[in-house]
Amino acid sequence: HRQPIIAIDGPAGAGKSTVTRKIAQALGLLYLDTGAMYRAVTWLVLQSGIAIDDEPAIAEIVSQCQIELIPDGEQPRTVINGEDVTEAIRSLEVTANVSAIASQWAVRQALVKQQQAFGRQGGIVAEGRDIGTTVFPDAELKIFLTASVQERAKRRLLELHTKGKIEVTQEQLEQDIAQRDQLDSNRAISPLRKASDAVEIQTDNLTIDDVIQRVVGLYSREQ
Ligand code: C5P
């Protein structure tokens, strides 16, 4: 019998990463960031000069690559083919291309398989777009985190300011987020969708701690 699994899905910028990381710490679960895996493959494709729509070449690359998610305090490190890409996968270039890569069947098939292997023993909290619907449809607790486009852009801008990166405007971020939502929600395979048995939390007026308390509360009711 496996340990419990928490699935956290939702659109870009709804606060999934922070919430998932802290829930993992609070409950002593492993943290699985599936977005980092799609980002790492995107980084590799860009790096190798393969066209973003060359599906056969990308299928080949993804079938041969090795992705490691290494626990390291607050922020686990992402390593692909031995190279640490933890920072590189957050670039605007990777972010702009990741949805196109993540819509490809061969990419999803390979990564979902790895994610399921990672969760075989349970005891994890996984975040992504299709965790509750496709990767772990039998997860004990499914959360769907949302926030308005404006709120998500505002949070991203604040985050970029904190890191000293201020080359984008709120409007640009709103456009990027809306476009990524559009692509992620309308693709043919495993689109971003709330599982029928997921609990939706709208976070516009909630703090991170509010959200964590709710999830931890729901989780302890499950036990
Ligand atoms: O969560 P994050 O913003 O890092 O995810 C990056 C992209 O990876 C998403 O916009 C989406 O296109 C893709 N993704 C996905 N399925 C997942 C996780 C991420 O398609 N489970």
UniProtKB/TrEMBL annotation:
The keyword Phosphoprotein does not apply. Residues 6-219 form the Cytidylate kinase domain. It comes from the Bacteria. Residues 1-223 are annotated as: Cytidylate kinase. Its main location: cytoplasm. GO terms for molecular function: ATP binding; dCMP kinase activity; pantoate-beta-alanine ligase activity. GO terms for cellular component: cytosol. Keywords: ATP-binding, Cytoplasm, Kinase, Ligase, Multifunctional enzyme, Nucleotide-binding, Pantothenate biosynthesis, Transferase. One of its GO terms (biological process) is pantothenate biosynthetic process. Signal peptide: none annotated. It is found in: Cytoplasm. Catalyzes the transfer of a phosphate group from ATP to either CMP or dCMP to form CDP or dCDP and ADP, respectively. Catalyzes the condensation of pantoate with beta-alanine in an ATP-dependent reaction via a pantoyl-adenylate intermediate. Belongs to the pantothenate synthetase family. In the N-terminal section; belongs to the pantothenate synthetase family. This is Bifunctional pantoate ligase/cytidylate kinase. It comes from Planktothrix serta PCC 8927. The lineage of its organism: Bacteria, Bacillati, Cyanobacteriota, Cyanophyceae, Oscillatoriophycideae.
